[in-house]
# Entry
Amino acid sequence: MNKILLLAIIFCTLSYTGCATTTDLEKTERKFDTEISALQDENAGMGKAMARNDQAIADIRKRIADIAADMTEIREDLENLRGDREVLGKGESDMRKEFADIRGRYDQLSARIKTMENLLEIGSGASEPAKGEKVISGEPKSAVPGEREKEVYGAAYQAFKEEKYEEARKGFQNFLKQYPNTEYSDSAQFWIGEGYYFERNYEQAILEYEKVIKNYPQGNKAPNALLKQGFAFLNIGDKSSAKLLFEQVERNYPGTSQARMAKAKLAEIK
# Structure
């Protein structure tokens, strides 16, 4: 009996030892699987990090290249400044002569600006239409502008000269609602287009210039509007349309300053 009990104890001990070994192996295997999975994830993360680093390095290289280009430009500017300094180092008599030349060129430019102002009615409100020209629209225009008419137009134009284009635009639009058929009407519509042009809203400027051409074809702003349409199309990259408009200016208004400007632009486009 004792022998049988001893054998049973030994058997149970061996059996327990075997079970424990199998459980430990399974635990170890699961642990290894977990570590391997973690290493794989870490490796994938490192790959992504390396890719980001490569992109960052590429971006840095591009910035370095841009900086190098800027440095080259700065060096060129410095060289130009050195040249200007040498010019400034001339004798007093030479400087006075250069100043006199600059003053003369300034006076010439001022004269040319005044001429252009008279042409485009800048600085003087709206000039009278050229002889034989009338503002054509649905109704006859008023013979003599009234004081209120001049006041409304002048306020809008003053805002335009001060580069308050939105305020000027509202003023001119209000003027056109009140006085749609006066000798100032084509000018008011033209300045609306100019405001958009100076704001670089070239598409809208083209549309506003078109209103000048269609509503006031005989007004003295029609050639300017047609010319500026060409400039606006150039600014949006439509050279074909610009060329057609410049050719139309030359054809419709021969011998005018607008025709000469159109001819010059056509030469540049070619």
